[in-house]
Amino acid sequence: MIYLKFTGKTKDIEHLQYLPTKILRQKMINIRDSPGDNDSSDKANSSKSIIDLLICKSATEPGFNEIRIRDELLLVIAAGGEMAALTISFAMLMFAIHQDIQQKVYEEIQQLTTDYVELTEDHWTNHLKYLEQCVKETMRMFSPVMVTSRRTHKEIKLKDNTIVPANVFVAGFIHFANYDPELYKNPEKFDPENFSDQAIKERPSCSQLNFGFGPRSCIGPKFAMMSIKAQITYILRSYHLSSSIKQFTKEDLKTDLSIRSKIGYPIKFTSR
After folding, report:
1. What is the CA radius of gyration of the chain?
2. Would the pLDDT of 252 be above 80?
3. FRET pair for 15, CA 20 to 30 Å: which of 75, 123, 202, 207?
C-alpha cells in the first residue's frame, strides 16, 4: 500500500476498479428492488447471468462480498479487453483487404457523424448496423475463443435421441461451428450479410456462441460491441486502410489460448 501511494498507482487502480464497481452496485440495487427475481430454484437460476448468481450467492455466503465479486468482474473485463483488441485487429485487416466493404462502412459512419459531433451511447447501440454486421462476421471467422465447455448436472436427451450422461464435460468447438456450411453458405468468405436481420432469423438461436449462452455467457456483450464499434469508427474516420496482401485464409491462423495471425496484421494507414 505504501508503494502504491508513493508511486501514484493508487489512482490508476481506482480508475481500473471504477467500471466494475459501478456495474456491480447498480446490479445490486436492481436485485434489491426486484426481490421476486431472487428465486433460488434451478429454473430461476437457469436464466440468470453470472453476476446475478454471484450477487445472490453473497446473500448466503459472507465470503462473497462486494470486493470479491468486483474482482471477479475485473478479471472478466480484463480478459474481454484482449478479446476486443484481437477482434479489432482482424476487422481492420478485413477492411484493408475488402475495399468495397470498408467504403460502405465509412459511408455509414459519415452519414451519422461529423468531426464536431460527440457520439453517445445511443449511436453505438442503435446505429451503425452495417459496422456491427462486420464486427460479428469478423468474430465468426476469427473467433477470439475457440472452444467452450460445460459440465452436465443431469442426464440430457438430445433431439436425435442421443443421451448425454450426467456429470460429464461437454465441449463446444465454436471455431468449427462458425465454419459450418449448413449455417453459412460460403464460410470461407468474409461476408457481413451473414449477420443481416434476415440471415440471423434463418439460423438456430444458439448457432452463434462467441459470447456464450446461458448463465455462464459473457457478462458484457453489449459493452464489448459498443467498445469495438467506437474504436473502429474513430480509426476509419481518420484513416483509409490498405494492405499488401489480397486474401487471408485459415492457413494464416495460429492458436494458443486464442486465435491469432501467423503473418501479423499488414495494414497501411493513410490519412483521409
Report:
1. 21
2. yes
3. 123
Strand intervals (E) in 74-231: 147-151, 156-157, 163-164, 169-173
Residues contacting residue 4 through CB under 8 Å, at least 6 positions apart: 10, 13
Q: Which 8-state DSSP code applies to residue 200? A: H
| Most distant CA atoms of the chain, gap in Å | 64
Reported as half-sphere exposure (CB side, CA atoms, 13 A), residue 184 has a value of: 22
DSSP assignment letter at 169: E
pLDDT of residue 10: 67
Strands 169-173 and 147-151: antiparallel
In 10 A of CB 174, how many CB atoms? Answer: 19
Q: Once rounded to an integer, what is the mean pLDDT over residues 179-202?
A: 92
Q: pTM for the whole thing? A: 0.71
Average pLDDT of the segment spanning 242-251: 90
For 71-104, the pLDDT digits (tens) are 777 776 666 677 888 899 999 999 999 999 999 9
Contact indicator for 186, 192 with CB cutoff of 8 Å: no
**How far is 147 from 264, CA to CA, in rounded Å?**
23
Residues whose CB falls within 8 Å of the CB of residue 81, separated by 6 or more in sequence, listed in order: none
Query: Reduced to 3 states, what is the DSSP secondary structure of residue 241?
Result: strand
The helix-helix angle for 221-238 and 66-97 (nearest 10°) equals 40
